[in-house]
Structures are given as structure tokens and as C-alpha cells.
Amino acid sequence: MMTDRPFNVLFLCTGNSCRSIMAEAIMNRVGGGRFRAFSAGSHPSGQVNPHALALLKRMNHAVEGLRSKRWDELSRASNPYAPELDFVFTVCDNAAGEMCPIWPGQPMSAHWGLPDPAAFGGSEAETAVVFADTYRMLNNRISLFVNLPMTSLDRMSLQKRLDQIGKTVGEPAVNE
Q1: Which of 96, 116, 109, 38 is CA-nearest to residue 71?
Q2: What is the mean pLDDT of residues 118-134?
Q3: What number of CA atoms fall less than 13 Å from residue 87's CA on the CB side?
Q4: Of 28, 68, 81, 87, whose Cβ has the fewest other Cβ atoms within 10 Å?
């Protein structure tokens, strides 16, 4: 898989307020200019979750421009100016139970489902831990992804690796 531009990666989720937003911010930093990330939702909430935004700021991510938006903004069928996507990852925890769209076209795709931290109903401290854990799992998966040898993997091998990454939980947090 070769391209003369950065790889465009879309993270999809239902509300586009937490997981996909965090993944967009992480990819745009970890991708080091080789990847450009976007996020969207099938039923966007219309706002970025304040816990996700606070965590991203604490982790020194650029948060300007992050917003909850509908996935068809990034579909060339709806928007002729939409970027050509190379990868599409769904990050909702249960694709069968949530309304995560199936992306048409040629981008490589995989399901990297995670539980929705916005659905957690604990104390502020417990909520912060849940959001941090989601961030850690996304960071682990994205770090594995950006370090794949893209130029030496055929499409089938790359798809297998993408699917394996989606099953990666990461190491448990120790002394954090």
C-alpha cells in the first residue's frame, strides 16, 4: 500500500463525542505526519464529551477543530470535497448493538470496538479512570497500527493485522 500523501484514517462511532474523537487526536499526533485522522458518528451528539476534551488537553493534544459531526460529511457520495479515505475503523463497543455504519468503497476497515466511557455512571474519579483506560487502549492500538510496515504488506496481510489490532487490549495500567 503506497501513497504520495499521508494516509487518511476515519474513526467512526455512534455519537462521535468520546472514543472516535480521542482516536482522531491520538492518530494526528502519533501518526507523525504520515497519517491524517478524522472522526465522525452515525448519530452525532453534537458536542465533544467534556471528560474526553479535558483528558486530551491534559495529555497535551491539539483539540482545536475537534467537533462531533455526522459521518456523511466525510463521504464522497455526500461531499465531493471529502478526503479520499485509506482506512476506516469503527470504535463502538458492539457494532451489532449500536448504529455504526458500514463504510462503502475501497478503504481498508476494521472494528476496534471499545466500551463507551460516556455511558459509565460513577464518581468523577472513577469516570476519569474509565476515560483514561479508553485513551490507553486507543493509544496502544493506534501505536501498533502506525508502526505496521505498510509498504511490505499485501492487502490480505494488512487486513489480518488490522483485525488483530482491534482485539488488542493492551497492558493493564500499573501505578498510574
Answers
A1: 38
A2: 93
A3: 32
A4: 81
